[in-house]
């Protein structure tokens, strides 16, 4: 017989497992050997609580009613303990406990010494049982665990639940019954504490036991990887093997998930509070925001059993913010340097006279491709590492700064006299279009304001390039614009000059080496500007249509010119067919004679083009000499009344490009201009003799001309 350690009369704890483990194993082995021979010193125990045991005269009731092929072998407590049948061993202990403590002390016929011995033996057996229980629980994650270990674990968990029920029964004992000093045993609480210790040890040993991190460059990255892999592997084992051993109400999967989350979080917090380089900082954030939430908590086999939202973040905001600031600061500096170098390289090519690359018969620039290939992957990486679109938007602000520098550089280059200027601008129109597509993508992490600013910069730069190509065309067409909608021109009824159409058709050849989509956009812009010039000449107040016949003739001429211009631009590639409707609606206003119908048509025109102003309407009505002042006022008032609802209507902006003089200047007619010119001549004649030398006179004249210009505009 092996002598047990001198244990005081107290409940065995988890710490006793290490002290008693070796001795307990030896006791169990010797007990198993003795079970084959004669059994000595067996205590005779009376079982008064038959309702609890479910027996009658020591025989199983079910056995009396159901015929069995072989009688059930009833093992002793020591045999159940040695075979890890802890549920049966627990029931035996509970029956003995009920037998010893289930009678009032004044009714117990046994001697006091015998009772004390029985209680001492029961306490020692409980301590042996609890050591064996913790040993089984501790072996949960052993690599060689099999079906037998699962049965032992299931039996251990069942015994814990039995002990919990026994604790509840002793909370309100019957009168006169003495509560055992080891009650309540709180096995479930001790079990949870043991699980916490098991998890902490496994997290600590993961850095030594887990393989597969050889390709990682730093020691911290290897440690974090190994811990994360252990968390994933252990939780998978819990779901696949351990979960079936526990009752559903214990929710053991989420218990383990919480314990591993807390242990992993503590370890990462230790790493975060040290001085980290950018690589380690990025890898730590990657596990916190991507790998752990996605590959662990939302793993295909785990997400059905684990509440992925309950554990929360691995690091608090207080620990995360310094890491995020460090990562973003480094990322901003890196992006800024990349973009600056890309622009500097491109500028050198412009200035050195290198012609852009010609692919598929049109010029291209690679600056947009280079920048997007740098920025786009970094944007995706930042979103993955930080796990927050708003935080990731911080890096994209560098693109706005780059685009401003790019715009300034290209505008400065276009002002110089370079042989390659046109080719460079054509190539950069392609890059501008690529930038716009990239910025406009909804999945790209841009702040709304940053996106708006970038698109505005690109639109201004595109318009600058368009102006470089289109301004010479308008300058060439200026002499033909001046003929439109004058009295001699209208009397000749020749329509839009043939020379104007010829110039437009000839200039298209210059854009043959422009990318088709950019060419289409450029010619569409030219279409809009030419039509705006045409309408502006119509509203110039150079003539009046005095009767219905003249107004119908003007409306027909307006429609014919619109068809000619539309046919020309459509053949060149413009898709702005909506411009035809603008001219047709203007022609309809000129054609109509009924003031009510004119009023309705004006409101319809304003609904289609919200930038139609009161000055445009008055200049258009100025052509209709047969309209009275009161009729014009009513039409204008109708437009003003409907302005609030019209501004919210979607439509094409057109009339903003065809500005007309203020209506007050138009109503005063040539009289205002007469007085302005007379005042200018009188002023100049008075100061001519007083100012010397001539340079002062020239300066003063220039100042006066500027003042006169402001007066005319106002």
Automatic annotation (TrEMBL):
<dbReference type="GO" id="GO:0006887">
    <property type="term" value="P:exocytosis"/>
</dbReference>
<dbReference type="InterPro" id="IPR010326">
    <property type="entry name" value="EXOC3/Sec6"/>
</dbReference>
<dbReference type="InterPro" id="IPR042532">
    <property type="entry name" value="EXOC3/Sec6_C"/>
</dbReference>
<dbReference type="GO" id="GO:0000149">
    <property type="term" value="F:SNARE binding"/>
</dbReference>
<dbReference type="GO" id="GO:0000145">
    <property type="term" value="C:exocyst"/>
</dbReference>
<comment type="similarity">
    <text>Belongs to the SEC6 family.</text>
</comment>
<protein>
    <submittedName>
        <fullName>Tumor necrosis factor alpha-induced protein 2a</fullName>
    </submittedName>
</protein>
<dbReference type="Pfam" id="PF06046">
    <property type="entry name" value="Sec6"/>
</dbReference>
<dbReference type="GO" id="GO:0051601">
    <property type="term" value="P:exocyst localization"/>
</dbReference>
